Amino acid sequence: MVNKSKLLVSTVLAFGLMVGALATPKMQPLFNKTYPVAKESEVAKAKCAVCHTKGKELNVYGKDVQKAMQEKKAKELTADILKSIEKLDSDKDGASNGDELKAGTLPGDPKSKPA
């Protein structure tokens, strides 16, 4: 009985990790549509690093996106969720997330801010 319980827990955890890994690529096109930026901008070059540091690890902006999704009990990222955190300054560099994204700078990196 114990082995079956361990197998069930392992299977559920593995499935949860797979779902999480599959969800990330879906978010990039929505982000790009919500925030169209110049191809030369830091945001365009960063791709997944706008929200992530390494692999699935989130930076401060990504954590604010995640928190907004949790607060709205959303399973999918939406443009409204992204826009709901535009007034925040996730990386505490003195520029709001919205201002950074409009300027093509990274809202999760305090070294990257509008001029």
Describe the structure.
With 115 residues, the protein is mostly helical. It has one domain (25-115). The protein has helices at residues 2-34, 42-46, 60-71, 79-84, 97-103.
Would you summarize the structure shown here?
The protein is mainly alpha-helical. The protein has 5 helices and no strands. It has one domain.
Brief descriptors of the model:
115 residues
Question: What's the arrangement of secondary structure elements?
Answer:
Blueprint: H1 2-34, H2 42-46, H3 60-71, H4 79-84, H5 97-103
Instruction: Kindly report how far apart the N and C termini lie.
Output: 62 Å
Q: Strand percentage, roughly? A: under 5%
Uncertain runs: 8-23
Secondary-structure-based class equals mainly alpha
The major β-sheet equals: none
Q: Tell me the radius of gyration.
A: 17 Å
| Secondary structure tally, helices | 5
Structural shape: globular
SSE order, as H and E?
Answer: HHHHH
Overall average pLDDT: 85
Helix content: 40-55%
The tally of beta strands, per DSSP, is: 0
Structural domains: how many: 1
